[in-house]
Amino acid sequence: MSTVYDCADQESRTKGLAAATAAARSGQLVVLPTDTVYGIGCEAFSAGGVRALLRAKQRGRDMPVGVLVGSLSTLDGLVQSVPDQARTLVEAFWPGDLSLVLPHAPSLAWDLGTTKGTVMLRMPLHPVALELLGAVGPMAVSSANTSGKPPAATAEEAREQLGESVSVYLDGGPCGDPVPSSIVDLTGDEPLMLREGAVTTEEVSEALGTSVGKAD
Question: What is residue 165's predicted lDDT score, i.e. its pLDDT?
Answer without folding.
Answer: 97
